[in-house]
Amino acid sequence: MTRPRPAQLDSPLVPKLMRLASRATVWLYKKTGGAIGGKWRVGSAFPSGVPVGLLVTRGRKSGEPRTTPVLYLADRERLVIVASQGGLPKHPQWYLNLQAEPLVELQIGRHARRMRARTATPAERAQLWPRLVELYRDFETYQSWTERVIPVVICEPN
User: Fold this and answer.
1) pLDDT for 66-91, tens place per residue?
2) Where are the domains of the chain?
3) In this structure, how many other beta carbons lie within 10 angstroms of the beta carbon of residue 76?
4) Residues forming beta bridges with residue 74, ordered by sequence position
5) C-beta separation of 85 from 92 below 8 A
6) Does residue 18 register a pLDDT over 90?
7) How far apart are CA 148 and CA 155, in angstroms?
């Protein structure tokens, strides 16, 4: 059952602010090797933080590299990310990009890894979702704000 999203989150200013914050985070993360921008400390992640990596996809139309900060869960050699987009009704652009081209790069700290991204199967999602919510409780809130099933993405070494 969906719950209504807070109205202020649907302001036309929010996407613009998010793009600006994302660009600043990417720039700072790259300059500092993740010393700045490597932990998300907003919402349920305050004060301890959730790890952040930089996901590089290829634009499905432009073919240009697109870098997005993402929260991640380390699962052995795999990294697991969530295409939540704060519970918006549409998937984030980076998710659509990796569906078109699953070869991605994930930078953790100063180390970048080439990986192959895929959407978790329903059984994998059921197994991973509680761990992701434990990592960042707001994922559960985001899921309650949308009718789409928020995709869980598994990135495996290429």
Assistant:
1) 999 999 999 999 999 999 988 888 89
2) 7-157
3) 6
4) 79
5) yes
6) no
7) 21
